[in-house]
Amino acid sequence: MPESTPSSDNESFLQLELSDALLQSVKEAGFEQMTQVQARSLPTLLKGEDTVVQAATGSGKTAAFALALLAKLDVTHFSPQALVLCPTRELAEQVAEAIRALAKAMANLKVLTLCGGVPARAQIASLEHGAHVLVGTPGRVLDHLNHKRIEFSQLQTLVLDEADRMLDMGFQDELNAIVEQTPKSRQSLLFSATFPKSIAELSQRVSKNATSIKVAAVQQANTIKQVFYQFSDTSDAAAVALVLLTYQPSNAIVFCNTKVACQAIADRLLSSGHSALALHGDLEQKDRDQAMVQFANGSARVLVATDVAARGLDIAELDLVISVHMAHDLDTHTHRIGRTGRAGAEGLAVTLAGPQDDYKMRLLEDTLDAPIQLQELPAATTNAKPLVADFVTLQLNGGKKNKLRPGDIVGALTRDGKLTMADIGKIKVQNNFAFVAVQRNAVRHALTLISNDKIKGKRFRAHKLS
């Protein structure tokens, strides 16, 4: 597999062969200079070459493959020309939003999300009207293929995003079946945070002549402080609580290796007064969606998650990452801690290590500049307060399909002058629902404003998420 030559830092998007429409979208998105993964991969991607890219979450890889697939779309042909496969619905929704943002200057371009966890009826109707870009999970995409609802004769680009997690989740057969039904003339792009043997084998099946690009997370090393605590007698939940009370982060993700541990720790933190939520595969899809929204908008300060469930969660600033026991492999450990210390900000990664983690720690130590110093857990403190969020999330029973926009929600909440912009946090509008974060002491008045008046001539119901 040929390797690309490294590019220098601080390269401009203006150096690329991109249309004026795409360059305008890049500028409006606030992208000033290319990230390392964009600078190294985009020249190859834009040439139409098959490419395998190893890069961590937050590296800018989504924009890289989004620009590549958009650059060669023909909006006059209303048929699937690009397919992006993702391991989870959450990541698929995030990728679809990123593609739409970069394509907004391209008239009549349609991006359709095809994922499980939602009824297929609406997706079937949308497919009948056609779409240029499909973003979905392997199971649901294959289901539509098997029922002859999708036809790939015009497909130009196939993207496998977070390919390692798709294999971890058991999607090997589905991926093979989908790839077989795509044209051999397609461009194949495979993106993965880690690169185990199974990914090497998958890349060979998808394309035997792909260019390989590896973007190491070297830039993170100087901005992330790693601390290792030893615990054996203390329970997982009690150890996590001690760390949170000691460091008092603005927000934190706690990674667990099992769904059972994830839920147990979240329940314990919640009962202790922390604004905490669980995120794992045993939850209903709506509960997972709500947890992602609440953590992203600051209505929850602690998210207790499994590695797979946390894929698709994009938090620009994260103070603390806690690993309850070492991750299953070193690449996953690196991926976990890489969620903090982004964009040059300092981050902290704490690993709670038990006796069973000794071998993994020795392997990790071989990759570090200095030996790991195991510390005793911090002593309990009586004056430290639980992490409580300042905001609470309200969910409205309307969204994009009701022509609802963030500005409409702001207008409804500020119409009587009692609430100001300082009382309103992040707003997220989905197809059928909208979410708005409001200051905790403003919740009752916000609910009254929404329920007792109309927004754009329509009445919407709202309720507080717990």
From TrEMBL:
Q: Where is this motif: Q motif?
A: 11-39
Q: Which CDD domains match?
A: DEADc (cd00268), SF2_C_DEAD (cd18787)
- Domain (DEAD-box RNA helicase Q) spans 11-39
Give the protein family: Belongs to the DEAD box helicase family.
Any one of the GO CC terms: cytosol
Does this UniProt record's set of keywords contain ATP-binding?
Answer: yes
Name the domain of life.
Bacteria
Q: Does the keyword Metal-binding apply?
A: no
InterPro entries associated with the record: DbpA/CsdA_RNA-bd_dom, DEAD/DEAH_box_helicase_dom, DEAD/DEAH_RhlB, DEAD_box_RNA_helicase, Helicase_ATP-bd, Helicase_C-like, Nucleotide-bd_a/b_plait_sf, P-loop_NTPase
**Helicase C-terminal domain segment(s):** 223-385
Name this polypeptide is given = ATP-dependent RNA helicase DbpA
Q: Which UniProt keywords apply?
A: ATP-binding, Helicase, Hydrolase, Nucleotide-binding
Write down the Pfam families for this protein, in alphabetical order.
DbpA, DEAD, Helicase_C
Entry EC number(s): 3.6.4.13
Residue intervals of the Helicase ATP-binding domain: 42-213
A GO MF annotation of the entry reads: RNA helicase activity
